[in-house]
Design a protein that fits this description.
5 helices, 3 domains, alpha+beta, SH3 type barrels, 249 residues, Alpha-Beta Plaits
Length: 249
């Protein structure tokens, strides 16, 4: 009886040991895959295709985020199947059943397929990147924290996190792609000389542009574009200025 008990205990310990080894290898594989993906992406992305280093890094971070998610999913699926094998569970029927279930779910998961396809095009067309400020469907807006093939994650100014399925994004307005633009209206009195107002605004714009404190922020001198409207107590003029991304505010 003692021999049988010892044998049973030894068998259970062996199974537990194998499970621990599989989990440890999966965790290690996750770390290795992360470093490998980061290294390959950093070396593969061609810097000459981007106007600034920031654009290049954002593109790399986006690709790394998506590839890491896919690699982690694959690693843990393999680990799960391996653990089932340790317990002598025949996974062939499970795989066959999964195939049948997959076909059945395919008819009812059109929105999921739509999300994945939309995410793929977002990635391929480089519509926006991690770190960009994005406005979705002219409503919710925020900094892009994460992009996967299924969802885009935004954090707004209130700190709220929005999970937006890629398939529902009809209009994606990237507020920080390559450069940004200040669009400012100011009011001057009706007694003002508009030609003088324009000279003053343009002179100040030139001074800001050559000021070392604003180097890299102001990309072109601010200038008066036009008289925008005649209001009750002032003439409104429009000023525009090209700036670095995210610095327009």
């Amino acid at each position: 009886m003692d021999i049988l008990t010892a044998s049973s205990f030894s068998g259970q310990f062996g199974i537990l040991f194998k499970v621990i080894v599989i989990l440890a290898l999966a965790y290690l594989g996750q770390i290795v895959a992360k470093k490998f993906i980061e290294r390959v992406v950093r070396r593969s992305v061609i810097a000459s295709k981007f106007k600034t280093k920031k654009d290049e890094v954002q593109r790399e971070d986006t690709l790394i985020s998506i590839l890491k998610t896919a690699a982690n999913a694959a690693i843990w699926v393999v680990a799960g199947l391996s653990i089932l094998g340790v317990f002598d569970i025949n996974i062939a029927p499970l795989l066959a059943g999964a195939g049948v279930v997959g076909v059945a779910l395919g008819f009812g998961a059109q929105s999921l397929v739509k999300d994945l396809l939309a995410g793929l095009f977002i990635l391929l067309e480089n519509q926006y990147r991690v770190g960009d400020v994005l406005q979705v469907n002219q409503s919710v807006a925020g900094i892009v924290e994460k992009i996967s093939l299924r969802v885009t994650v935004l954090r707004d100014l209130d700190g709220k996190v929005h999970y937006v399925p890629n398939g529902v994004i009809e209009i994606a307005t990237n507020l920080t792609m390559e450069y940004a633009q200040v669009d400012l209206n100011i009011g001057v009195s009706y007694g003002s000389d508009i030609d003088k107002v324009e000279r003053v605004i343009n002179d100040v714009g030139e001074q800001l542009f050559i000021d070392k404190k604003w180097k890299g922020v102001v990309l072109e001198p601010a200038k008066m574009l036009r008289v925008d409207s005649f209001d009750d107590s002032a003439i409104t003029v429009k000023i525009v200025c090209k700036t670095a991304p995210i610095r327009q505010w």
